[in-house]
Design goal:
The protein is of the alpha+beta class. 40% of the residues lie in helices and 8% in strands. The protein is built from 19 helices and 13 strands. Strands 1, 2, 3, 4, 5, 6 and 7 form a seven-stranded antiparallel β-sheet that branches. It has a two-stranded antiparallel sheet with strand order 8-9. Helix 15 runs antiparallel to helix 16.
Length: 671
């Protein structure tokens, strides 16, 4: 077994990382200057036509003895006959184009038949017709074919306008496949008109585990990727995740926003703003030849602004931290991320905005509708940042788990310090102008402030320490990746909060804030507050369980956590609309008495055995590892029944939807 740490990997390989061992993966060598993604152990398996290889070029030999091209809109064309059943049936390269240069008659793939899922029976294998499908659309079906018997139909008409296999007699194409019956039809002049061929799907690898060199030549798998790099640079736009450039930028003086970064005209002053639709946009951009010849005219963009003169702060003078100090900072940052998430959520609910903006209800053409739209836009920005902070809380805890430390998911306590420089502490407040200025200050990027003690600066310092001191961090690969995710997302928060300030600039706080009371005013409010606390407990418990179980949870628990968070959000919106402040209270741990064990073990949708007034209890430490969330989920059923007895129809419908999600959460834990 070869050394699991390839020489091209800069950081230590974490325990349990999987590397390919076949000869194809080991045959290449490190080439100076090539990106790390060119190495098998560093690739992301991004294909078609993406970063590493074009999957269509692998599938070109899916049928033994034929080479097929899937790249054209008119259909999939047969390019070569190299043997197999096609050669046995007398088909040669001479049959592939029997027309003239003025009237070519290529041979096309009309249909494919074979099993694509393991539960399909041989007699029920699906048939995929090329009719009204592009070559790419048919390739997607070919890509799904399982190893085993495959039947295809070839003909002269382009696949997208062909009759497919609907016309195949004697029981159809699948009957031909199961009976192993190939057939070729020629006209009186010997010209091939159509063919039905049956063979086993190709496996691509030779006995040594190498991609078959007799079928695939050097460069075959990458020949249709985005090359040169300017092609990829231009085509990957409109916020596509792999785009290596900004799509929209601000002018260097910060005055003009929403500029097309690749605009052709860079001399007009003021610059022409970007077109918000795809139609007509490309004509105003540098085309492929211009981008290849003039790529160097594109400016550097930092913090959303075009300015070649801007430089990143110099972090080289920072002293690396010890492993213990890194852990200590991550534990502190877990509390900070949790606190910021709750502060942002509370600020969001304090805005007098509807959960969804409906132009039919709030006409933007009227002063009232325009004001509501601005408030809604501000609320949407604040909520999006809060969601990011919840994701950061998850990632920080993933890092703590990677370092072998306990998770930090407890709600922040009053007095939790968020900003070390000012001593600013956690406090739930409405989004007053002062509170918004605080949010902007705490999210200001370190590239602007050059402050290593700020939240963003601390993450940069942690990243520098982990990358520079791999001897202290065998887990460096995973840790550095997670920290980089937080830094990249955090840089956008400052821009979003400044956008919130712009949305609310012309409004008075009396126009956009709703009064919120900490005291529930009605019996219904009391029950809604308790249900909100149960959902918050369920959310933290589901998040804790999925972090502890990792991949063994199969993503099921994290999906239930997302649903619970969505339900908590809907509940808190309802409370805020009724003038009640959300509390974000996790129910205290308490042992489950014997007379309540039956309640805790019953399905959430089951009626309570006594009355709806039975208090909700969450088990103590002896019922850890998700049991707190499970008990809260079961207790929520009784609270929802109490709410249904008090509530109007709209609230009852919400309770029904939330109950279904709670039942799914209980089922997920039971797995």
């Amino acid at each position: 077994m070869n050394d699991p740490t390839p020489g091209s990997v800069d950081l230590p390989v974490p325990e349990g990382k999987i590397f390919p061992r076949n000869l194809t993966a080991r045959a290449d060598h490190v080439v100076r200057g090539n990106p790390s993604g060119s190495r098998p152990e560093s690739g992301v398996d991004n294909c078609f036509p993406g970063l590493e290889f074009d999957q269509r070029n692998l599938e070109k030999a899916f049928f033994p003895g034929l080479t097929v091209d899937f790249h054209h809109a008119s259909g999939s064309r047969v390019l070569a006959v190299t043997g197999g059943v096609a050669a046995e049936q007398g088909i040669t390269d001479a049959d592939l184009d029997t027309g003239t240069p003025q009237d070519p008659r290529p041979l096309y793939l009309w249909a494919v038949c074979g099993r694509t899922t393991v539960d399909q029976e041989e007699q029920d294998a699906p048939v995929f017709h090329a009719t009204e499908r592009t070559g790419l659309e048919l390739w997607r079906r070919v890509h799904d074919l399982l190893p085993g018997r495959v039947a295809i139909v070839l003909g002269r008409t382009p696949g997208s306008t062909s009759p497919g296999a609907f016309w195949v007699p004697d029981g159809g194409l699948n009957r031909r496949r199961t009976d192993d019956r190939s057939e070729v039809q020629r006209d009186a002049d010997g010209v091939l008109e159509w063919a039905v061929l049956v063979a086993d799907r190709a496996r691509y690898l030779d006995p040594d585990g190498v991609i078959d060199p007799d079928v695939y030549q050097a460069g075959d798998l990458t020949r249709s990727l985005c090359a040169p790099w300017q092609y990829d640079f231009r085509e990957c736009g409109c916020y596509y995740w792999a785009a290596s450039k900004p799509d929209i930028s601000t002018s260097s003086d910060g005055v003009h926003r929403n500029l097309n970064f690749q605009r052709r005209d860079r001399t007009t002053n003021p610059p022409e703003p970007d077109i918000p639709t795809i139609r007509g946009r490309a004509a105003k951009e540098l085309d492929h030849p211009a981008l290849i010849a003039n790529w160097n005219v594109l400016p550097v963009v930092l913090n959303g602004r075009e300015d070649d003169s801007m430089e990143l702060p110099d972090w080289s003078g920072l002293q690396p931290m010890t492993r213990a100090r890194v852990i200590q900072e991550l534990e502190r940052l877990a509390g900070v991320e949790h606190a910021l998430c709750l502060e942002y959520l509370y600020a969001h609910y304090s805005l007098n905005a509807p959960p969804v903006f409906d132009p039919a209800v709030h006409d933007p053409a009227t002063p009232e509708g325009a004001r509501t739209r601005k408030i809604y836009a501000a609320a949407a920005e604040v909520f999006s940042v809060a969601v990011d902070e919840m994701r950061h809380l998850r990632w920080v805890n993933e890092m703590l788990g990677t370092l072998g430390r306990p998770l930090r998911l407890e709600p922040p306590r009053p007095g939790t310090v968020i900003q070390l420089q000012t001593g600013r502490c956690f406090e739930l407040k409405p989004l007053t102008p002062e509170q918004l200025d605080w949010f902007i200050a705490v999210e200001r990027p370190s590239a602007v402030t050059a402050d290593p003690q700020g939240i963003d600066g601390m993450y940069v310092k942690l990243h520098e320490t982990i990358v520079r001191c791999p001897e202290l961090f065998p887990e460096a690969d995973r840790l550095a990746h997670l920290i980089k995710l937080i830094i990249d997302e955090g840089n956008d928060h400052y821009r979003r909060f400044t956008a919130v300030k712009a949305h609310l600039a012309e409004l008075s706080p009396d126009d956009y804030l709703r009064p919120l009371s900490t005291d529930p005013g009605t019996p219904l409010d009391v029950q809604l507050v308790e249900l909100s606390a149960l959902n918050y407990t369920m959310l933290l418990g589901a998040l804790e369980a999925t972090l502890k179980r990792g991949d063994t949870a199969g993503g099921v628990l994290i999906e239930q956590a997302r649903r619970t968070m969505s339900n908590l959000h809907e509940l808190n919106h309802l409370l805020a609309s009724r003038g009640v402040a959300p509390r974000f209270t996790k129910l205290p741990a308490a042992p489950v008495p014997a007379d309540e064990e039956a309640i805790a073990s019953a399905p959430a949708s089951a009626p309570p055995p006594t009355s709806a007034s039975v208090p909700a209890r969450v088990p103590g430490p002896e019922l850890a590892d998700g049991q707190a969330a499970l008990a809260a989920a079961r207790a929520s059923g009784a609270v929802r029944q109490s709410i249904n007895a008090l509530a109007v129809d709209g609230v009852r419908a919400m309770m029904t939807r939330h109950q279904a999600d709670t039942d799914a959460l209980i089922a997920a834990f039971s797995l």
